[in-house]
Design goal:
The structure is a homodimer. The first copy, chain A, is α/β, with parallel strands linked by helices. Chain A is built from nine helices and 15 strands. Chain A starts with a strand and ends in a 6-residue tail after the last strand.
Amino acid sequence: MTRTVAFQGESGAYSEIAALNYFSRSIKTLPLPTFPAIFNAVKTGQAAAAVVPIENALAGSVHENYDLLLKYKLPIVGEIILPISHYLLALPGVKIRDIRLVISHPQALQQCADFLNGLQDVRIEPFYDTAGSAKKLVDDQLHDTTAIASREAAEKYGLDILASRIESNHENYTRFLIIQKEPKIPEKGGKTSIVFSFEDAPGALFKSLAVFALRDINLLKIESRPLHGKPFNYYFYLDIEGSINERPAKNALNHLKEIATFLQVLGSYPKSKAK
Amino acid sequence: MTRTVAFQGESGAYSEIAALNYFSRSIKTLPLPTFPAIFNAVKTGQAAAAVVPIENALAGSVHENYDLLLKYKLPIVGEIILPISHYLLALPGVKIRDIRLVISHPQALQQCADFLNGLQDVRIEPFYDTAGSAKKLVDDQLHDTTAIASREAAEKYGLDILASRIESNHENYTRFLIIQKEPKIPEKGGKTSIVFSFEDAPGALFKSLAVFALRDINLLKIESRPLHGKPFNYYFYLDIEGSINERPAKNALNHLKEIATFLQVLGSYPKSKAK
């Protein structure tokens, strides 16, 4: 049976490329308009898994998805790091000199600012989605407009590539998480993502991190998000080295329960091979 | 001489209200279109100070401004916490039943989602700015459109208030920072904001926080931002209790220099009285 994997955006989106890379080409991908929609698709069984962008090396974390991981309680079972390259796409036959308008997601536009500054007499307009901006060229048959999107979006919509790898900084990666309904915890190794909060006690954050340091468990990432209803109190999202099936991580989490007033494990999963 | 204080947005923006509350009414406020523009205004002397939103209790941190504090090196000299309430505004005489379109900043629209769901046959469209959406009603004389903005924007543009405090969660606060060209460090008390990074050594984050814990210095906030050019390495932004004029904080920062490869003090300043 072919597995369905949900992603946010239109066909040709970077999230879809991440899904096809992670699962091999045999899956069926399901484009959905919003991040809550892809969490819902996994929750209801409409999709077997979803691919969730969580962090970009230039723009930082996708905070909405941190909030949704907490809300939906769907376990993380894997991650994949994808290099992100942007391409300037247009309808076949259109030349750069014909272009009067560039459309794409605001983040893609910003990442290509140096290239765009070199174009003359061209307006720049934000669009809700990179692959969606490529699709729009075809849907509306725009002969004076160009879109910034993936190479895969060019193939998908039969567009010409006018310029390649136009991002200012080529060290551009996005980390995607794979979520499913059931956890798939490795016996050992990998990483574990958790979220916790505590009453506003002095030193509580330090003590929370000490439970890992005292057991030589490496911290890979920390992220804070506001705790709704309690202004300027935070949830802390932490990635630590190792699986919760291993004794040190188990002990550390038991220790953390003594300090935190709330603790949830978001998943233990193998680390991405790429980087 | 009247001091000029820059803020991002149109007249009537929450940032302008924060400026007037912080400095008293005697200042001259200077509306500018972007966050870099307000940092630039202080740098060039066009404004004596600027008011910078840094954190909202519901939406989280304004990450662009963390990056700009690092880039412009303009010291933080104060902070103010402002309760945020949203109002539904329309041209005089317009009734709720006439409304076909609601415009505002996406964050304000999201914060009023429950109220908006109760309206029938109404389209919702994101706008770049809350006060700007109020101004647009007047500029374009829109009789079938309503804007979500502050009470002050209603006064400013002569609009009627159709509904008050329509945000779903009333525990809605924004913390603003005041930046100037010269630091104004309190002799004692207040808080200090710093940013630092380190080579990817195991335990370095824990050791960095230990320099404060070992001296009983309270951590008030931690925030991580990507370090450009080094994928998945981070700058850490930290708020700690006390002024860098005090011995424990001075010692802690000297200790932190042994661990961090980069350290910058963003400012020592009195804590906001409101909350």
